[in-house]
C-alpha cells in the first residue's frame, strides 16, 4: 500500500513504489460486499474506500492481475521487491491474522507473531499508514479480510534442514544482538523475525535486498534502522547468512546465491556519467 506523496520506484511495503502514471491515476472499483460475508457492511465499505485511496491493490496485485494476491515485482532504486498476498487465504495470505493483528501492523509496521514491515511497506507505514486512526485501521483490516481468498504459491512444508554453518557464525556475530537467536527482537519487538514472512521465504529475494541495503521504519517509539550489510561482507557471506535466516526461522532451505546478492549490489550502484557521453 503506498501513500501518494511517497516518491518511490518499493507494496512496501511500505507505499510505496512508483507504479507509473497508471498507479497515480487509476482507482480500483470497489466490489459489492456480499451480505453473507459476516462482516459489517458499513465498516467494510469504509475500509474499501481507504484501500482505494491508498492504492493497496496496485502494489499487492498478483502476477496475473488478481487484486491483493501479491507477487508482482515492485521496482525500486535498489532492485525488485515482491509484495505479499494480503487476501484472507490461510496458507499464503493473511487468513490467520486477526483484525487486531492487521490493524496493528498497518499503524505500527509490526504485529506480534507476524514480523515487521520492510521495504516499500515500511515506507507506506512510515509516511502514511501510521497516521490512520484506530477506527480507520480496523475498517481497512476488516475490508482486507473480507475480500475473496486467493491461494498463491504455497511455501514448502517446514522440515528439518541443515543450517548453513558460515551463515550461523555471521548471524551470531552481526544479527543476534538485535534480532536474538530465537528471533524475538532485542531492542524492539519490530526487530522480531519469528513469524515474519520475508524471513521464512525460501526464494529469499526480498530478504537479500534488505540484508544488502538495509531499511528504516518510523514507529511510535521513533525511527528503527536496519543497517545495510552490503559493504561489510562478501556475496558468499551474505548469501550464507540469508539462507541461515530462512533455514532457522522458516525451517526450509533458503535459495539465496552469491549471484542474487551481486545483483542486489549492482542495482544500487550509482551510474556515473562519462565525459562526452
Structural commentary:
With 277 residues, this protein is mainly α. The chain has 2 domains: 20-144, no CATH class; 165-266, Cytochrome c-like domain (Cytochrome Bc1 Complex, Chain D, domain 2), CATH 1.10.760.10. Helices cover 38% and strands 8% of the residues. The protein has 11 helices and 6 strands. The strands form 3 sheets. The protein has a two-stranded antiparallel ribbon with strand order 1-2. Strands 3-4 form a two-stranded antiparallel sheet. α4 (99-108) crosses α6 and α7 crosses α10. The longest helix is centred in the last third of the chain and has 16 residues, at 235-250. The radius of gyration is 19 Å and the shape is globular. Mean pLDDT is 78; it is low at 1-36 and 269-277.
Secondary structure topology:
Layout: H1 20-25, H2 41-53, H3 56-59, E1 73-76, E2 79-82, H4 99-108, E3 110-111, E4 115-116, H5 119-127, H6 134-144, H7 165-179, H8 197-200, H9 205-213, E5 215-219, E6 222-226, H10 235-250, H11 258-266
Helix pairs in contact: 2-6, 4-6, 7-10, 9-11, 10-11
Range of strand content: 5-15%
Number of helices: 11
Largest sheet composition? 2 strands, antiparallel
Uncertain stretches of 5 or more adjacent residues? 1-36, 269-277
- By DSSP, the count of extended strands is 6
Task: Sum up the overall morphology in one term.
Answer: globular
Strand order of the largest sheet: 1-2
What is the first-to-last residue Cα distance? Answer: 38 Å
Structural class: mainly alpha
Q: What is the average of the pLDDT values? A: 78
Helix content: 25-40%
Order of helices and strands: HHHEEHEEHHHHHEEHH
The number of domains: 2
Radius of gyration: 19 Å
Amino acid at each position: 500500500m503506498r501513500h501518494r506523496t511517497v516518491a518511490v520506484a518499493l507494496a512496501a511495503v511500505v507505499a510505496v513504489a512508483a507504479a507509473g502514471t497508471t498507479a497515480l491515476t487509476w482507482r480500483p472499483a470497489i466490489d459489492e460486499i456480499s451480505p453473507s460475508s459476516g462482516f459489517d457492511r458499513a465498516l467494510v465499505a469504509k475500509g474499501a474506500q481507504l484501500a482505494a485511496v491508498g492504492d493497496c491493490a496496485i502494489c499487492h496485485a498478483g502476477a496475473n492481475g488478481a487484486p491483493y494476491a501479491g507477487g508482482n515485482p515492485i521496482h525500486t532504486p535498489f532492485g525488485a521487491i515482491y509484495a505479499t498476498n494480503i487476501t484472507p487465504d490461510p496458507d499464503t495470505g493473511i487468513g490467520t491474522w486477526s483484525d487486531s493483528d492487521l490493524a496493528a501492523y498497518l499503524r505500527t509496521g509490526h504485529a506480534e507473531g507476524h514480523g515487521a514491515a520492510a521495504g516499500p511497506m515500511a515506507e507506506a507505514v512510515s509516511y502514511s499508514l501510521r497516521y490512520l486512526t484506530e477506527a480507520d485501521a480496523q475498517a481497512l483490516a476488516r475490508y482486507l479480510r473480507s475480500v475473496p481468498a486467493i491461494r498463491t504459491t504455497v511455501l514448502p512444508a517446514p522440515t528439518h534442514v541443515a543450517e548453513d554453518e558460515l551463515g550461523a557464525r555471521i548471524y551470531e556475530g552481526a544479527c543476534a544482538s538485535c534480532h536474538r537467536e530465537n528471533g524475538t527482537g532485542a531492542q524492539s519487538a519490530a526487530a522480531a523475525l519469528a513469524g515474519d514472512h520475508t524471513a521464512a521465504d525460501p526464494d529469499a529475494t526480498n530478504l537479500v535486498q534488505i540484508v544488502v541495503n538495509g531499511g528504516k521504519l518510523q514507529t511510535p517509539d521513533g525511527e528503527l534502522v536496519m543497517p545495510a550489510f552490503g559493504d561489510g561482507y562478501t556475496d558468499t557471506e551474505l548469501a550464507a547468512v540469508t539462507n541461515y535466516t530462512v533455514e532457522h526461522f522458516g525451517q526450509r532451505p533458503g535459495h539465496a546465491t552469491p549471484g542474487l546478492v551481486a545483483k542486489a549490489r549492482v542495482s544500487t550502484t550509482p551510474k556515473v556519467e562519462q565525459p562526452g557521453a
